[in-house]
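Need a sequence for this fold. Nothing fancy.
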């Protein structure tokens, strides 16, 4: 059995074909990923929830790091709440002791024909002093491309605060991430009403000399309605926004 699904979005309304109809768990997850691979280009709610914060704490000067993260928005799967299986890879380089440049690539979207990458930097503007957290700002350019008719640029700006603790300097962080919609129009030439999408998050990272293990929980776009979408989001906000969960591993060298 095949299915045709119509999606309205900030870019355009489009039809896509989904040939997967098996009830097998793995195939169902792949089916969802196929849907998301297309929707990634046409729904900022999906795009902005594909990955956690990058390098909340800057690397040391000339230090390099690679990162892999898995997770995404929480949704209902046969009565069970699970995160979307988004896989992203990132590389960071310490420009100096307070600034890290980075790039990231979304593997899941690439598997289904969508090119999505991030270019940005993390700049520490305040250091931690006892209970006063260290403060960082992170500007990012999100580049999304499928074809000439489906391409977008989303500027992003995050403000993060983190506290180090313990002998390994593990850290806990809070972040407010903001995505900016530059288009004046959305589907069917309608006026774009929401130009800022914000996402508060909290995370924790186990820090070792060469390794880091991070978990992050994020609330995505609590100001936007999630009704009438393809996916049944699981969120305490009911009809607004979504929640996301991520797990990440970083190797420093």
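Here you go.
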């Amino acid at each position: 059995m095949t299915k045709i699904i119509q999606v309205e979005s900030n870019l355009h309304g489009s039809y896509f074909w989904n040939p997967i109809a098996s009830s097998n768990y793995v195939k169902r997850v792949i089916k969802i990923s196929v849907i998301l691979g297309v929707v990634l280009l046409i729904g900022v709610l999906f795009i902005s929830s594909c990955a956690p914060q990058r390098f909340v704490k800057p690397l040391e000067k000339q230090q390099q790091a690679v990162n892999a993260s898995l997770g995404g928005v929480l949704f209902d799967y046969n009565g069970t709440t699970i995160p979307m299986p988004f896989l992203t890879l990132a590389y960071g380089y310490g420009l100096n002791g307070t600034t890290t440049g980075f790039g990231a690539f979304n593997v899941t979207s690439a598997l289904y024909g969508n090119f999505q990458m991030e270019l940005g930097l993390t700049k520490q503007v305040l250091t931690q002093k006892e209970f006063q957290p260290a403060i960082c700002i992170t500007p990012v350019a999100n580049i999304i491309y499928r074809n000439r008719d489906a391409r977008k640029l989303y500027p992003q700006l995050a403000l993060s605060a983190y506290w180090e603790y313990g002998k390994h300097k593990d850290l806990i962080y809070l972040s407010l991430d903001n995505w900016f919609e530059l288009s004046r129009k959305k589907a069917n030439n309608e006026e774009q009403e929401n130009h800022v999408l914000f996402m508060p998050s909290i995370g924790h990272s186990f820090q070792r000399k060469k390794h880091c293990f991070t978990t992050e929980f994020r609330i995505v776009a609590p100001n936007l309605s999630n009704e009438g979408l393809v996916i049944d989001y699981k969120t305490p906000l009911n009809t607004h926004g979504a929640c996301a969960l991520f797990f990440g591993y970083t190797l420093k060298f």
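For context: Residues 1-27, 29-42 have pLDDT under 50 and may be disordered.
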